[in-house]
Write a structure and sequence with these properties.
Blueprint: E1 9-15, H1 21-27, H2 34-40, E2 43-47, H3 57-67, E3 75-79, E4 82-83, H4 102-112, E5 115-119, H5 121-125, E6 138-139, E7 143-144, E8 147-148, E9 165-167, H6 174-185, H7 201-204, H8 215-219, H9 234-237, E10 286-287, E11 290-291, H10 300-312, H11 316-322
Helix pairs in contact: 2-6
Length: 337
Amino acid sequence: MAESSKERLNLLWLQSGGCGGCSMSLIGAEGPDLLTALDAAGIDLLWHPSLSLQSGPEVLSLFEDIAQGRIRLDIFCLEGSVMRGPNGTGLFHRLAGSYQPMMNWIDTLSRKARHVVAVGTCAAYGGITAAGANISEACGLAYDGREEGGLLGGQFRSQSGLPVVNVAGCPVHPGWVTETLHQLADETFTTADFDEWERPLSYARHLVHHGCSRNEFYEYKASAERLSDSGCMMENLGCKGTQARGDCNTRPWNGTGSCIEGGYPCINCTAPQFEEPGHAFVETPKIGGIPIGLPTDMPKAWFVALAALSKAATPQRLRTNAIADRLTVPPASTRKR
């Protein structure tokens, strides 16, 4: 069989204001690992700050070659928010050795790329780095929180004609990134593959609630009261899995892990401004005993009626297990005749 003559693509990865957690998650990719996944898509990694050997003048030379058009840039990935402070100068964050603000390099490289990908919620919307007073003036590539703008502006389009692809998450699931890169490399990713926040529908068409191992507790509104409890964490502990976009529980990290499986509520980390919920992450705001954040698409009256009916029908097994740190009461066995 003849080998494919398709030209291999060049990918450049930069890190800006953030913790590097998305790269850490991506390095943990399995079946296949990250480099195998990139190779299978026909993608060559020009440079990544954690995976590449080049540094200093070598990296600056690479950036200059891209900026001057001597090296083609097919996919530009940014991890971490853009640091625009102080007063829009970007001087809080300079690229070492260049004396230039990192935001200037990000802008230049974005406009040279066929596709631009924001990896993680920081790069997409500002994320944790933009929380609080945001003295660093952190923002995303095309969003500043929920507002269009960011560094590049809401009307930005890469050379492919697409807006910035926001693979949001804190951190991202490695599969979300590699799947999106494969689609871009295959030229099958179109505007129809975006949700309303330019997140790939490959994961954003799902709710974190889908596949949650606590769904039986949710159905009967058998609620946990402490983080160590086994019950549903929506009613008392701030879980937003019924509202949050992501397939975290049907495509868990490394085949087994998710926030909820680890005993912590979903904080909706794929959404803009998740970092500023207005209350503690492990609290559920209520009015008249009813959670403010109801499941997506569910009218309040329906939720109240169904919740009351569900609680009335809750099996004792679930009532007991919901407030225990492990499942202590097994399902009843079918009685032998």
